[in-house]
Amino acid sequence: MVSVLISENKLLDAQHTNLMTTGQVTNPFGLDAYGFGVQTINGNQCFGHNGSSRGVNGDLEMCLGSSYTVVTLANLDPPGAEQVSQFIIGRLPLSEPK
Length: 98
Prior knowledge:
By secondary structure, the protein is of the alpha+beta class.
């Protein structure tokens, strides 16, 4: 899983992984890091990316400390996919702290 590779610094060194997964700027759903949005839902620290156009919306969330990756696609304007992702992540078991 990509989330495991990222959290174990297999894709980037620890310094750059930290930059990509640590929030820097506040947004309506959490924080933005360099490359990913970062949010904590029900104790699960997740990072991911989303995108949209008129009538379509997608969201990718990878949760640190677990192997959960949530991908949602919606034939709706935003934030349809993000809301579904948050609903799913909010019902997952808590991630194990490292």
